[in-house]
Structures are given as structure tokens and as C-alpha cells.
Amino acid sequence: MLQEISIKNFAIIEEIHLSFENGMTILTGETGAGKSIIIDAMGLLLGGRASSDFVRHAADKSEIEGLFFFHHNPELLSVLTDLGFEDISNELILRREIFANGRSVCRINGQMVNLTTLRQIGEFLVDIHGQHDSQELMNAKHHLHLLDEFGDENFEHVKAIYQEKFDRYKDLRFKLTKRQRNAQEFAQRIEILQFQAEEIEAAEINPEEDQNLYARREKLNNIKNIADALSTAYLALDDEENDYSSLGNIKTCMSELDQISEYDADYQKLADKAAESFYLLEDVASQISHQLDNLEFNPNELLQINDRIMTLNTLKKKYGPELTDVVHYLEKVQLELSDLTGVENDSDLLETQVKEAQTDLINASNTLNEVRHQIAKGLETDIKHELAELYMEKADFEVRFETGKFSANGNEHVEFFIQTNPGEGFKPLAKTASGGELSRLMLAIKSSFSRKENKTSIVFDEVDTGVSGRVAQAIANKIYKIAQSGQVLAISHLPQVVAIADTQFYIEKNSSADVTTSIVRKLQPDERVQEVAKMLAGDDLTKEALAQAKKLLEK
Questions:
Q1: Which residues contact 306 (CB under 8 A, 6 or more apart)?
Q2: Average pLDDT value for residue range 134-140
Q3: CA dihedral angle for residue 64, residue 78, residue 490, residue 34, rounded to 10 degrees
Q4: Cis-peptide into 422, omega within 30 deg
């Protein structure tokens, strides 16, 4: 149930705070005072679409916050857990902020959430029923959805199985149709992919190969400069024809220092460094000699490298720009080839699978239709019972089915038919029901659904339009009856509906030269008598009107 709601800077509401109880609460007030604005704010709190137009003039943002209690709702708890909420008690605080720049912020128990999550949770908490719901009744396209809402868990399971079969059939049928319509393009695509795969595979690419080839080619193109440099470096270190080569001189230095090393520690250090330098340069000379011995120029190798580089550059130009991109492209080609040439795309096999999927779909739809027809019978019985309590005891309600094309919801169209008087025959609801009959019919359906749903609160926004007299009293009784199993908030201009409520809030509008605000107050028993009397007789109150109002409230 909705325990409390706080609304700030919303439309003409500056700031109000309302506390609600179980049972039936009525909101009354003159037209334009802000009754429906409170319902609009509640709708936004539950995930409705926001607009900066809702922000009160000169305010930075609107703020709406509600405290909800719920009991015995495992489905809601499961959804909250899946969404990552922890340590969930039996209460939720929903908060919505709408900024003047159009931005909106949603929170559940202080945790920021997106609008989809807020709406998902809000659907478990409150069912707002207004005049647009009657418009939904008038459109036969919505009747299937309304009927399905009357289903139980078994029906949802059966419907889920059907939708799974429908999705499989649709997918296979699409593949087969595409294959048949584009057989020539299909074959050409496979041929192109096979050529590309063979071209890349034949090259046996190593992603780092091109860099190594560039380096080797550069070395071969400069082989003479390399040989000259190595020879000059070797001769500078160890010229066998020159007794005074660099190594020879360093060796002499090392020997002379070694002879005097025993006389001073510093001499020893110098001798060690000279020895270290000699052996290091001797090793360098040896490695240079080895490089010279192994240095050779092979013209054929250079030709092969240039050819290989040309092959790799061609592949990079086609599928690159880099060799790693070529490798990745090959993987994509192989995957597409596997998909196009796999058994799942074989035309004969696809035709067989489509036939099997069609058979499964027909069987699933037959089961769905059977369960749905049973639900319809239950709904018909419930609606007729509810209508009788709303002084439409002679009316008859019927759910009719018509076979059509397969869709995600089945292969039958649903439409509600009604016979308001015996002998008139059944006619489509959208074409026969008057305003008052439509209000009663919608209330009958909502009353039936309220026993099936697990909503904590139901809101009725002027659902009693077009009725009066004993019918108005019957509607009042029906709304009150729904409130006995939970919480009902209602807006009404009917004295019968207002009088039967457990609690009444009065909304009035205060206007000055610059500002218009809505003020809400809870009415005391004597104030309720005054308000109901005004509904009966207008502002000119009489003893008779006050007496009748008191009688309605006592009843």
C-alpha cells in the first residue's frame, strides 16, 4: 500500500504531504484545484514519462517521493533481488526528480535506477485506472491483452512455450525464404569467400613477417657497406700485419701494469681494468671476424624477399591495412563460410526443419487457444456477476475468437461482445456501450482483475463518469468492496462514492496576483457532511441537503 507521498514544485502544487491508510480514500475538490495533478505525480513516481512542463514556474525541479509497504509478494521480491537490491524489507521508497532542463533522476531506496527499472517495480505497487482505460476497452486490438491479464501462472507458461515455438518457426522460415530467393547470390557469395580464404591461407601469413622481411632486405641492399665497415673495424683492433695494432698496444699496457701491480693497490686496479678492456676488445674482434666469415650476398634471396613483400602488400591492400587485419579477416571469412555451407543452411534440411517447426507451432497454438478459451469462460462468468451488482443484471458479456495469422500472441483475434438487453443480440463492445455502461463495464473488469492481481494499491481517476442515482451507489459499493482487500484511492464527483470512502481529502486552489497553489487537507466528519451536501445541492445548502448528506455518510 501507499503509506505516504510527498510532492514538491509540481505543476501548481508548491508542496504537499499526504499519509494514507488501508481501505478507501477519496480526493475531492473543485475543478482545476489539482486532484488529477496528484494522480499525475503518482504516475510519474511509478515510472511514467516526464516533461519539464511539470516543473512549477520559477522552480529548478519537481520532487516526488512515496513510501510503499507490501506483503506476501514473492514475485516483487524476486525482481528486486535480480536487480541487485539487498537486505530488502517490506517497504520501498521511490523518488523521482524532474529538472527544468528536462533531465530526470529516479531512485529506489536511495539507489539510483533507470526509468525502465522504476517502471518495472512500479507495476507491482499501484494500478492507476483512469478514463484512458475505458478508451482501451473501446479498441478491440487491446482485448487480447486484457483477456491475458486474467490468466494464471499456468497460462503464462503455456504462452511462453508458444512464443518460443513461434520464434523458432519465424527464424527458420526467414532463413529458408532468404536462401530460396537469393540462391544465385548465395552461390556467388560462397565462391567469393572460398577464393578469399584460399588466397590468404596459401600465403601462410605470420603477422610479424613483413617487418622481418623489410629488415632483411635492408641488410642485403647494404651488404657492401656492411662488409667494408666490419673489415675496417677488425683491422683497427687486430691487424695481423701490424705489430702495433690496438689489441697489441693494449696487451703491452696490460703486461707493463701487471709487473708493477705488487707495489701499489692502485697499480693493481689499473692492471685489472687494462686486462678487462683487452679481453673485451679481443671478444669484439672475434665476433667481427665471425660476422665477416658468415657475410655473403645471395641475389636470389633478395629476389625472393621482394616477391614475398609484394605478395603480403597485395593482401594488406585487399584485406588490411596490417597483416593482423588480414588474419582477422580470414577468421571472419571462415566463420561466414561455415555458416553458409553448414548443414543448417542446406535447403532440403531447412525445408524439413520448417515443416517440423510449423507442426510444433500448430500444436502449441492449439494448447494456447484451449487454455485461453477456458480463461475467457471464467472472465465471462466473473464479468456478468460484477455487472449484475452494477444494475446491469440483464446484460450478457461474451468473449469471441476468430482464427487469423500466427503472431507472437497466437493465431486468434479476440473481441469483447455485449448484449445490454435480452433479445437485442450480441454486438461489439466498442460499438454499443454508452458512457455509463462503459464505466460500469470497466469497473466490472477491474473488480475481476483485482482478485487476480497482487497490487498493493488501486487508483481510480474519475471512473464514474456518466452515471447517477442507484447506479452511482452501485459503483460506490463496488469501489468500496475492492478497497476491503487492499487500498483504493479515488477521485470522484459523485456524492455516493465520496460518502462511502473511509477517508476524504479536499483539494482547493489559492490564487493571488502572481501565484496559484494547491492546498490539500483531510476533512473531519462535520466537514465531510458539508462537502457531500454541496455535491447534492450546490453552494446553497439546505437542511434537507445536509440531512441527506449525513444519511449517506452514515450508510
A1: 217
A2: 70
A3: 10
A4: no
